[in-house]
Design brief:
mainly alpha, 67% helix, globular
Length: 151
């Protein structure tokens, strides 16, 4: 497979054999932000917790900003129509506890994938995803300790 070279501001993506890594990054960035948004809305509208809501919102915004400069590249590689994963069924969540846990885990797992794959083409930003992942772990703990009656 031929190597492709993409110019991204001052960065050059040339050593990864496929742009499929960009698809993986795109899907995990979206998955992460979606999971964080679900937790954010749970804190804001169900638990009415302005302080924790703002903290999760900060993680979501920070995560989004990490790859803002290559947004166009991510969109160009997106192929949601042909993605057979979109047909997979999901287990329905029955209560607030299940919704919050599942979405914290979704975000944390996605941040780990972002951390790993960003090492292949933008190694300097990998640590930024790691910071956001650990921030999500810490915030999950805060939410659990404050609302353990739901857990």
């Amino acid at each position: 497979m031929a190597l492709k070279k993409i110019k991204v501001d001052m960065l050059s993506i040339s050593h990864f054999p496929s742009l499929s890594a960009l698809r993986i990054v795109d899907v995990n960035l979206n998955r992460c932000k979606e999971g964080l948004r679900v937790v954010e809305d749970s804190l804001r509208f169900v638990l009415n917790d302005g302080k924790l809501y703002k903290q999760i919102r900060t993680i979501r915004h920070n995560t989004d900003n990490i790859l803002r400069q290559i947004y166009g590249e991510l969109i160009r590689e997106r192929d949601s129509v042909e993605d057979f994963g979109r047909e997979m069924s999901e287990i329905s969540k029955k209560d607030l506890r299940a919704i919050i846990i599942a979405n914290f885990k979704r975000a944390q797992e996605s941040l780990r994938v972002l951390e790993e794959y960003s090492k292949t083409f933008m190694p300097k930003i990998s640590s930024e995803f790691k910071k956001q992942r650990y921030a999500a772990y810490a915030l999950e703990r805060k939410v659990y300790l404050k609302y353990k009656k739901f857990f």
